[in-house]
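User: Here's a chain of 416 residues. Predict its fold as tokens.
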Amino acid sequence: MNILSVSELNAQIKSLLEATFLQVSVSGEISNFTHHSSGHLYFTLKDKDSSLKCVMFRGNASRLRFQIQEGMNLVLQGSISVYSPRGEYQLNCVSAQPLGIGELTLAFEQLKESYQSKGYFDNKKPLPKFPKKVALLTSSTGAVLHDMLRVAKKRWNLVEFVLLNTLVQGEGAKESIANNIQKADELGADCIVLARGGGSLEDLWAFNESLVVESIYRAKTPIISAVGHEPDVVLSDFVADLRAPTPSAAMEILLPDKNEWLMGLDSMQNILQERFLHLVRKKANQLQNQAFLLEKNLFFNKIEHARNALENFDLVLAQKMQHKISLCSLKLQNPNLQISLKMQQFLARKSMQLEHSKAQLYAKNPENYQKSGYACVLMKGKKIKSLAEIPPQTLLELQDGSATIKAEVKEVLQRH
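Assistant: Prediction complete.
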């Protein structure tokens, strides 16, 4: 018997297992799951009787649509590899698929639950009632654009559409959608419509990507998600401010119906005209009633009463004036007597005033002072009020009733 070393045996087992189990699919439950910082995934796949160590390296793990979690039932595709130094083997996983459910379906549910827990589906912005500018994010060559413009033209003409040609499927679609959402948000549009036609979950997956969801959530402009047909559901439907079942339905929801508004304006015009005529008739009746009441109002009676009172006052005034004239007429019939009495009274008053003035004049007559030995002193023809004011050697005149004397002042003696 050929004796083998441990390394030789492990090498032979490695060659045999890796050649035999080059492509295998195996199902089981995930346990001991570890997501290493390097990006590699380490876990154990087990059933009720046994277990199998598994590894999925970073390159394969990055292509997974969903996140592997503890306790998940998966179908794994890969190959058996042997680690010779320890004599251990493991399943080197290339891909994984949920057992009993599609990979994309599971990924969709996981992403939906994640964003819902973050509040991305709350706080919806209201749509404008009469949008003036709308940004359309869709393919410029697809039928979706023509369908939306056709519906828009029929419903409402007072709107400007700005088309941002957008890749809506395949590689680079998520970047195109996210970039155009950011551009549209900076245009000052009233609303953004994100649209594409129907397709499989794989075809519509770009609208489930985190990059797109984040862009919709950050946008300040209201966004309508009109992706696919009515049964199709993507994450952009939940995070957008409104989900439309189809792109054409988005136009019907967003734009007013011009025919409906024209009919409404006609109806409002008729109602306004009827109410105006009713108001005019009502005011005319009120005016007639007021005119009737004005004719019967006591105000005119008050005016008539005031007119009668004024006539009475005029009559009384005329009588009093006539009486006054009569009295004056009687006085004028004997004018000499009246004048004589008034003249006598006037002359008596004037005679008394004259006698009083004579007495004052007599009291101030200089001749009366001169008879008592007084003389009038004149200096240069003017009266002297005080002798102390006369300087020596001044020529003076002394007068009384009998003569005038000229004299010279020799000396002035002051009295103390």
